[in-house]
Structures are given as structure tokens and as C-alpha cells.
Amino acid sequence: MQVQVRPASSTDANEAKQSFFRRVQLHDLASSLSHWITCLFITAIVCSQLLGAVWDTTTTTEHLVYGRSPLLGPSQIIGTNDVPFPDRVIAETIDNIVAACEALGYSNLTRDNLRVVDDWNSNNLYKLPNTLPVLIMPYWDNAVYSRHAVPTWSGDACIFRLEDAYTLVDSGSTVASFRGVNQSVRHDRTIEWLKRPEGIWKNGWYEDPQRIRWYSDVKSSWAGPPYYMMHRLFDMRSGMEVDCTDPNNCEDAPHVDQWGDKFSSSDKGHKINSIYIANGTEFGLFYESFEQHIVRSVFDWETLLSNVAVGLVLFRWVLGIVVLHSVALRGKTQWFSGGIGCVSGASSFAFLPFASLPRLKTTLAAFWTVGCRFEGQQVGLAEAWFAIYPAIATFALIYFSLLNLLAKALRRRMSDALFTPTVVALCLLHYFRLEIAASGWLKGVDGRIPTVVFSDEVKKLHLYDYFSSDIAWRMNGRVPLIFGVKLAILGVNLLPLLLAHTFPVGDRCADLGLHGIEKALAVRTKHVGGLGRSLTYIIAVVDRKERHVASMSFTGRLVSAHNDRSGSREVEWNPTRAWVTPVTPLCVQAEEPLNNNGPSSIHEVAFVNSYELIRLGYLVFGDKYLITFDEWDVLSSIAPFKSFVHFWNHRVLVWTLRPAEDEGDAEIAGGRALECVEPEM
Fold first, then answer.
1. Residue ranges of the domains in the chain?
2. Distance from the CA of 499 to the CA of which of 88, 450, 560, 642 falls in 20 to 30 A?
3. Contact 82, 285 (CB under 8 A)
4. Is the pLDDT of residue 371 over 90?
């Protein structure tokens, strides 16, 4: 970049300098606002997780719809949920079960053994010896909750559900519930919605005149339109029917699922309409309910340690943004949006992956659960927003911390612009999980994804299993689209690193040509790898005689006094000598002319911008000293107590700044300079 030198009066030049720093583009404000929102959002959800020590339960209600309304006619069923198949039999309260079926209108029930047909289109009837005449049909593989059936000798079957004590065997429940609809209601709704009258009931299924067999199970917890199929509730302990005049008395019992040893969920449906009428080729499912989720999580020391580690990073980030924006609003430096690159040099950010190790298994499990509307045990994690969203933020911070370390190792600087979109994309992916599952985009998913990784396996998992097995794929519900989206998000964030240029390595004995602040900190600012990019230097053309700034410009390059290993010399900036002077309040240096061949009154001064000093981990304390953020943390934490208690003597390494009222080149240009490149204790 060339320095643009133009004559200017002292007043015009100073006004131009002030307006130059204060000029902010709309996209700069938008970027800054997005960083603020991201930082505050992450802070809020991390704090909400800390509240888990006393607030470990959340209750939400959502409207669930699976499939298509039966009023529109049959449609193709997607997925394998609700496919009826023989799995297990139970041996409790058989007499009261048969009596309840008779109360629903079924007669001539089988009472000796269970008889089944080996396929939906088969005519082979098999009697299973040593069994009770109750067929259990789980909603999905390995599910606790099921439909049940008792065949009749006339070809029909009593369809019902057994709940409470039948499934909650560890709860000590004294209620054994039987739910079903009248035989006439089931028959009438099946024929009405199929529009196939004059069929017969055979082997528990409805066989229409075209000899197509249809399995039918309908129920509703609400009387009246549009379905008119209110279920009836019986207590199998007493054999008495419950009065369902008030529908709230007969709503379904909550379904409780445990996933691992940290998450459990309780789902209770309100105003449920469940209609399953299908042939052997899976044609015609509908389900609707207003479901209340109660999710519980266990707060432990792993959660506390992880949140403290994340909190330190967020504190450093907030502090960096506040410093950058406060000095910019005062017109002392140009505007920087303040992305996650602000903490590139912070030790808390560098060690975050290691500090998060105790809870990393849960973080990875949450990441692979994102975007999936599960049915079954894993719903305990999927619906725990106070675990999922903090895990998304933690995962993103860990991932970018690893990218930061990798960029430093490869001697590259990469943009941090993708951090906010990454967090937003993952949060939105999970927030709209129900809509995505019901959209039809996911092959074989009808609105709910069956749990594949069960509680017992979660308890036995080790951290290395996430990298050495297919556990990530299975925790993602084996859904290719969602899995691919997550991998794409991770891959896109690698592009800035792969496209960045590697810094040259100078000869061991070469003079690096460091001046001013770079010499004081022993670092070539533009060659510090990691997250965060900017035009590192500000070039000011100062007229010493008139004491004004003739022009200012930005550049990412300055001439270097060293050669790279190939022997080629860097020629990046015109002046024969260069040194660095900071812009208030974060960059400083002792002044020295940059161009010995020009007019004696015109001098070019190079400043390290404020963002670069924040990246390196430095700030100005009391407008007098340049100190590290770590030292500032200690000083600011003990300062409130100095008036009434003395903790200890703490030594701080500082660089003293030259007074702002000084008349050097740095002060003329609006910057600050070091009194000496050697620090003081």
C-alpha cells in the first residue's frame, strides 16, 4: 500500500485524522453487533447451565404431528416406527384384561394361548404353546411402550395399551392402566377413512373386498370432533372403569426415559389423537398431540469445571471488545469489530480443550445429537436445552481453540469471521429439529428419529470411542443429511486456515529489524499466527514543522530487515527503516524518523493497531502503563478491597508510556509511545 501525501493545513489535517478514526461502515457495525450478541448469548446459556446446581428441570410443550390426517385419505408411511410385530408377552392381570376387552364390545376372546399369522399376507395360523393370549407390539425396536392385542375367535382383535405399573416397574406404581376404544368406534373409523366397506375382520386385521389387509389402531384422549374416538380407561388392579367425563382424568401417563446417568425425560401428551391404519406395505399413519416435556439433568463437578473454563474465555473476550469499542467511540483509534480472535493469545483460550476434557464426552454427545428429534431414550439429551445449547457453544469454542493452536503451529493467520455463523447454524439446526424431521427431507424419517444408542451403552462409553468407532454416526440417528451438514460445518471452518499463507522463517542469526513496541515485546506483530486478521499497521505522515498529520493509511506489510531461508529479501514497504508506534490506548513506541531521504520536516510513522495488541494479550492500564491481560486480571480483582484490606504485595511487569501531552511524532499522529523498550517491575 502506498502512502498518500498531500499538503494540508493543521486544522484540516487534524479534523481529517479524527474523522478517519470515527468513520465506521455499516458492515462494521453489523459485524460488531453480531459479535456482541454471540458473546452475550454464550454467556447467558453458560450461566443458565451453572443454575443447574439448583434448577435441574425444564418443562416445554410442543405440538407434534406425524404423518397425514386420515381425513385426507391414506398415504405412504415413512420410516419404521409403529410397525406392529410380535416381540414379547406379559403375564399379569389377564382376567381383568379380558374383562376390559369385553366391556369395549369384543366377544369370543381367546383365553388359552396366543395365535399369530407369520406375515401380513399369509394364511398360516400358528398357536404358540405356553403363552398368554396377549400380543405386545412395541412402537419401535427395544421400546418399553407398546400396543397390545388379544385375538378373538371371530377374526377380530381387541387393541389396547397397558401402562403405568406394566412399564414403570421400578416406580412402585399401584395403578395398572388399560386404555382402549370401543370395538364399534374402531370398526366404523377404519371403514370410514379407508372408504372400503363390506370387508371382514380376519386375524385381527381388516380385509377389504380386494383382499388387502389393514391393521387398525385408533384412540384419542379428547371427545368430540373431528375424530370422535375417545378412549376408555380401566384400572386393572380393581377391574373398575375410570370416569372420563372430564378428559383430564384420562390423559395418558407420562413416558419416562433415562439416557446415561445424567439425563432423563418425562413426556406427557395432552389432547392426543393417534391413528394407525396401515396395510403390509406401510400405508396410512397419523399422530398428533400437544406434548409436555419435563427434562432433568445432573449438575456435577465436570459441568462446573467446564463452565469455569468457558467463562474465563468469555470474560477475556468481553473485556477485549469493550476496550476496542470504547477507545474507538472516543475517536482514539479506528473501529474493529472484535471477533473471537481477540482471545487468540489468551492462555485460557489455548488451554480450553484440556480444561474441558472432563465433560468432553457429554459435549461430543450433544454435538452429534444436534438437529435430531429423537424418540426413545436419547430424547432426554435432545430436549435438554440447558445442556444442548451450552454444549454447542463449548464445542465451537473448543474447535476454534484447536484451529487457533494449529494456525500458530503452521505459522498462519486465519480469519475468525466464521465463528458466529457456526454457532448460529448449529443452534438453528437444533431449534428447528421437529420441522426438519417432519419435512420429508430425511430419508426414512416420518417426524421422529429412533434412538440407536441406548442408556446402557452410554454409561460404558469412553472418550476414545468417539474417534475410533461409529458412535458419532449412531448418536446422530444414522441420518445422512444431518450428519453431512455437521461435517460440512466443520470442514468449512478449515478453509480459512488452508487458504492462509505461511509466514517465512528468518535465518537464526539475522537481524529481525524490530523497533518500538515490537522490540519491547520481542515479536513481529504481523507474523503472530492464530485466529484474527487485520491490516496490522497504520502509517501516518507527520509534518514536524507544522505539527500536523498530512495523511494516514493502513497496511498489512512493512519492510523487514531480515531475509527468509530462500535468500530472497522481503520488500513490502518503501521506507528504508521502519519501526512501530501504537495508537492509543493499546500500542506504543519510541519515535524515530522512517525516511532519512525526505524533507527534514516530513516523517513517516508506523503504528501497530489496537486490535493487534489485544490479540497479543496487552492493554493500557491507567493511561500510563502497558501491561498484560493476566496482570490486569489480578490488579482489577484486588483493587476493590484496597480500601479496607491488604492482601499481598504483587509485582507487575509494565512498560511506561510517554505522556500524551508530549510533542513527539507519535503524539502528533494521535498515538502513544514507550518511554523505554525495557520493562519495569
1. 25-56+300-499, 60-297
2. 560
3. yes
4. yes
Burial (Cβ within 10 Å: 0-12, 13-18, ≥19) of residue 522: exposed
Q: How confident is the model at residue 580 (pLDDT cuts 50, 70, 90)?
A: very low
Of residues 171 and 278, more confidently modeled: 278
Average pLDDT of the chain, as a whole number: 76
* pTM of the shown model: 0.70
CB atoms within 10 A of CB 142: 12
Determine the Cα–Cα distance for residues 346 and 343; give it in Å rounded to an integer. 5
β-pair partners for 255: 267
CA–CA separation, 386 vs 401, rounded Å? 23
Distances (CA, A) of 160 to 31, 47, 232, 542, 608: 58, 46, 10, 89, 76
Task: Give phi and psi for 498, each to the nearest 5.
Answer: -70, -30
Closest CA to 263 of 455, 104, 77, 421: 455
Please name the amino acid found at residue 411.
R
Under 8 Å between Cβ of 530 and 341: yes
Mean pLDDT of 354-376: 92
| Whole-number Cα distances in Å, 27 to 24, 30, 33, 275, 314 | 8, 5, 10, 52, 24
Q: Which residue has the higher pLDDT, 645 or 442?
A: 442
Strand partners, 655: 626
CB 379 within 8 A of CB 291: no
Per-residue cell: 150: 388379544
Position 470 scores a pLDDT of 93
Query: Residue 245: how many CB atoms within 10 A of its CB?
Result: 8
Percent of residues, the chain, with pLDDT higher than 70: 71
In the sheet where 240-241 sits, what is the strand order? Answer: 135-138, 146-151, 157-164, 176-180, 232-235, 240-241
H-only helix segments in 359-479: 360-369, 379-382, 385-409, 419-431, 433-438, 455-460, 465-468, 471-475
What is the pLDDT at residue 393?
A: 94
| Rounded distance between C-alpha atoms, residue 51 and residue 340, angstroms | 25
- Phi/psi of residue 372, nearest 5 degrees: -105, 125
Lookup: cell for 253: 401417563
CA-wise closest residue to 365 among 489, 435, 453: 453
**Distance separating alpha carbons of residues 577 and 559, to the nearest angstrom:** 7
The answer for residues whose C-beta is within 8 angstroms of residue 33's C-beta and 6 or more apart is: none
CA 253, 259, 265, 268 torsion: positive or negative?
A: negative
User: Which residues make beta-bridge pairs with 270?
Assistant: 290
pLDDT tens-digit profile of 36-64? 999 999 988 888 777 665 665 666 666 66
CA distance 46 to 55: 13
